[in-house]
Design brief:
It is built from 14 helices and 17 strands. It has helices spanning about 5-15, 45-50, 60-70, 80-95, 105-120, 140-145, 150, 170-175, 200-215, 235-240, 285-300, 300-315, 345-350, 375-400, and strands spanning about 25-30, 30-35, 40-45, 100-105, 125-130, 160-165, 180-185, 190, 195, 215-220, 245, 260-265, 325-330, 335-340, 355, 360, 365. It starts with a helix and ends with a helix. The chain has two domains: about 5-55 and about 300-400, Aspartate Aminotransferase, domain 1 (Alpha-Beta Complex), CATH 3.90.1150; about 60-300, 3-Layer(aba) Sandwich (Aspartate Aminotransferase, domain 2), CATH 3.40.640.10. The chain is globular, with a radius of gyration of 21 Å. Bound molecules: pyridoxal-5'-phosphate. Pfam families: Aminotran_3.
Length: about 400
């Protein structure tokens, strides 16, 4: 089966919501993946910040295989050990006084958060505040809170009063939040907007505004959590604790799992019967997540992520190319800012040369490699990048002429 045959079958049998991806992958080993035609790529996107241990990590393979052979599924009619263990581990990494609900994806983690804060809100609270250009998922509740107009607007109205303020703007947030606000939903750094950090002190400001008004502070760390920034969680670097935290992506290392964590009074805000998920807390997904957490500890991947992130940033900063305006981000979560809307060309030309990166916005390339990436692998990418940028520029010029 060639890539082009597979793409044709994809187009004929899958809905057109994704378009047809250009590359058909079949195998992954560490930070390398292979397409069905045998081409090798250095994976610098990790399935959108998901495959944090790379591909085929022995600890993950062993945990998943063992759990599948032991007990693959229980439903929530029964207790099982992996789910309890994983909840305990997350609570301990988060510093205690918290409880966890497990979902199967990021958007479901946010749906749980949405119901949780509604349940916890006193009478008279009726609206939400979220950040412009933010992303919280594609199901209706999360989508209502998503600030990317192009993906939200075709599917409204959502039956929720959501007010958007610019990302990182504390004055606008203070203006928008009063004692009838249910909750504020934010990301620390906006991932889908192009790895856009908020100004220093932003999370502390959100905390203060929520404390002053009694609105719940919901922090979406679905992309930033589980080591991506070099800390277990981005909010820990800021020294700020939200009321509700959502996680997914990197947590399962490639297996589908999401989590909604409630702190303090939000730990116990759900009543019995308020929420549920047949697959949520599935033993295989929990075993995978435990293997991810164990491996991050055993291989000292937080420190490694910090060091590799600094190396990547330094090497990117040293590149002088007319198409590259600079880089931003933290840890192994970076954006290349381009001087023109040529990200699609950069993504394509990088792939042609064996590098998978992501055109997250027309002028922005996202890089989120496995946390196990080596200095040598970063070096190979950096050395090829000027050629990739040259080729992208040439492709853009050619496109404009035709
Ligand atoms: C990816 C993402 C989501 C949605 O996660 P899914 O698993 O795709 O539903 C929500 N919030 C943020 C910040 C994300 O990056």
């Amino acid at each position: 089966m060639t890539g082009s045959e597979l793409r044709e079958r994809f187009a004929a049998s899958l809905m057109p919501n994704y378009g047809v991806p250009r590359i058909a992958l079949t195998l992954g080993r560490g930070c390398e993946v292979y397409d069905v035609d045998g081409r090798q790529y250095l994976d610098l996107i990790a399935g959108i910040a998901v495959s944090s241990l790379g591909h085929g990590h022995p600890a993950l393979v062993k945990a998943v295989a063992h759990q599948a052979a032991t007990l693959a599924h229980t439903s929530n009619l029964f207790v099982h050990e992996r789910e309890v263990e994983l909840a305990e581990r997350l609570v301990s990494l988060l510093g205690g006084d918290a409880k966890v609900f497990f979902a199967n994806s990021g958007t479901e983690a946010n749906e749980a958060a949405l119901k949780l804060v509604k349940r916890a809100a006193g009478p008279g609270r009726h609206y939400f505040v979220a950040a412009g250009k933010g992303f919280h998922g594609r199901t209706s509740g999360s989508l209502a809170l998503t600030g990317k107009d192009a993906i939200r607007e075709p599917f409204g109205p959502f039956g929720m009063d959501v007010r958007f303020v610019p990302h990182g703007d504390l004055d606008a947030l203070r203006e928008a939040v009063d004692t009838s606000c249910v909750a504020v939903f934010v990301e620390a750094t906006q991932g889908e907007a192009g790895v856009v950090p908020a100004p220093e002190g932003h999370l502390a400001g959100v905390r203060e505004i929520c404390d002053a008004t009694g609105a719940a502070f919901v922090l979406d760390e679905i992309q930033s959590g589980i080591g991506r920034t070099g800390a277990w969680f981005a909010h820990q670097s800021a020294g700020v604790r939200p009321d509700v935290l959502t996680l997914a992506k990197g947590l399962g290392g490639g297996l589908p799992i999401g989590a909604c964590v409630g702190f303090g009074r939000y730990a116990d805000a759900f009543h019995k019967g308020d929420h549920g998920s047949t697959f949520g807390g599935n033993p295989i997904a929990c075993a995978a997540a435990l293997a991810v957490l164990d491996t991050i500890e055993a291989e000292d991947l937080l420190a490694h992520t910090t060091v590799m992130g600094e190396l990547l940033a330094e090497r990117l900063d040293a590149i002088d190319h007319p198409l590259l305006a600079g880089q931003r981000g933290s840890g192994l979560w970076r954006a290349l800012m381009l001087t023109g809307p040529h990200a699609a060309h950069v993504e394509e030309q990088a792939a042609v040369r064996g590098f998978l990166v992501n055109a997250v916005a027309p002028d922005t390339i996202r890089i989120a490699p496995p946390l196990v990436i080596t200095p040598e692998q970063i070096g190979v990418f950096i050395e090829a990048l000027p050629t990739v940028l040259d080729a992208a520029e040439a492709a853009a010029i050619k496109e404009n002429q035709s």
